[in-house]
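Crash report, auto-generated. Payload:
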Amino acid sequence: MTVAIDRATGKRRGDRAPRPGLGQRLKHSYQKHWYAYAMIAPVVVVLGVLVLYPLVYGLYLTLTDANSLNTARTIGVNHIDATYQFIGLDNYADILWGPTAYDRFWSHFIWTVVWTGLCVTLHYCLGLGLALLLNQKLRGRTLYRMILILPWAVPTFVTVFGWRFMLADGGIINSFLDFLHLPAPLWLEDTFWQRFAAIMVNTWCGVPFMMLSLLGGLQSIDSSLYEAAEMDGATAWQKFRYVTLPGLRSVSSTVVLLGVIWTFNQFAIIFLLFGDTAPDAQILVTWAYYLGFGQQPRDFAQSAAYGILLLAILIVFTSFYRRWLNRNDQQLAI
Amino acid sequence: MSTTTAPTSVEKTGQDQAAGTPHKPRRRGLGTSLVSHGILIVASIVALFPVAWLVYLSLGPDSDDYLHPGGIWSKMTFDNYTFVLQHTKFFDWLQTTLIVTLGTTFIGVIMSATTGYAVSRMRFPGYKKFMWVLLVTQMFPVAVLMVPMYQILSDLQLVDSYLGLVLVYCTTTVPYCAWLMKGYFDTIPFEIDEAGRVDGLTPFGTFARLILPLAKPGLAVAAFYSFLTAFGEVAFASTFMLSDDKYTFAVGLQTFVSEHDAQRNLMAATAVLIAIPVAAFFYFVQKNLVTGLTAGGTKG
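Recovered output after restart:
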């Protein structure tokens, strides 16, 4: 009988007899694992058809000059065949080094990196601060927690419109600033303030997730560690530094990685907050969307090329992040 | 890469593994607790205000009331709500949203459960690579797949159809939920599977009869996650749904603010109508959502 669970994690390959041939191994593996393959088959099929195939297709598109004027389309009863051509790596070269490349790619790239860094830092620090506060014995702790996760509970596309009303010229925020005799910036028109507003709204939306995750992490730290630290006369700061932070390590590394990926790809907030009115406040994701779907003619090839570049950036980041974690002997808690 | 935070010592089943309780610090001074309360109150106001403001604005009858909020007090009315429910496509949007979100949830949970189980229990060749593939799909920016997906769906005649959107959403929810379920299955002792196998169940039987019932909380978390993801998605819904009776809420809400005409009062009312049930649902499930997201769930 084959046992369903094989706890060997693949490290025991060395102590086996000489390896059988490839065909033999495949057959053996099939006999042993056929049901595992059967179980992941549906996912593999769906991901293959809807992720892998589009990815390959998208890669191919980036090597052409496809846009909405030369792809196959049907207008009324007339079917028009595709006339786009293969142009090799020209799209990438054009995006990275072509004329006005700075305005089209690099400025957005820098802004995207700044946006991701600032947002994740703010999310994490505010989330950790609030989690530490909520982890005390306080009256009304549950009520605070309920209120503080409201930004996560209400769908983003709803709250962004709430923010739009507040940030509008003459909206409540500027009225309030006027009332305090402070200058009232044009939140939705001026590039710097647009970016400021975007980070503000995204921070507001993203803190609850961090807060709750870190709160869960705090509550799973063994309390005897704190008792031991107190015995040894540790100050509050030392307890935080040598007990709390190491205890949060695995949760932290996970939520930071997720946070970076999510923020980097954050589409809804910027898209809904500014629509087409803020070309300079667009991060790469929304910019790529604009190129492919927000303008006429739709530039499919450029948009897909941006997408591939984005994916490359993320994959590079993640592999470095993992390497850095492994060097520090930490694990992701996903 | 080992990615589990599951306890290495396998505790007896049926025993609840209580989450660690917050440590009891020494009695703090009054000052510290006042400062804590102060910060939390400020944070609560910041968290609450934008939502409360939206509700307040939705009671003002004119589309420019958001500029003169003081005037709303004297003329509060529910007219916006009645108008939205009677004269807009609100119920069409509700129907689309429900079909798409529930479809995504249903398909997504089934798939992620089998995948998570396979990856958690069976060290089949290539499982680590497979997990990485799943993680990488989490990283796909909208822009990568949108263009090719649009082309493929239009070839398959699936643009502007519910099924097309459901499938697209599954590509984002399934990988994440599979990770989630794997984490959860890892907390269920292997001995249960072994016992099932010894008693003559097939691998599928073990999964369906023994493990799935034990994993209900994990399944619930995956379902909530799928539901909320599908509900809040903007980019694909804005692009793939063309006819205005097939808009999801995320798209429908945008129609109130066009270039020439901004019916902000109606929009605020619609926003409130959407937000209240979803927020209520969220509060109902949030505790499970968080434990599930970070640690593969604790058994309860």
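Post-recovery validation: Chain B has twelve helices and no strands.
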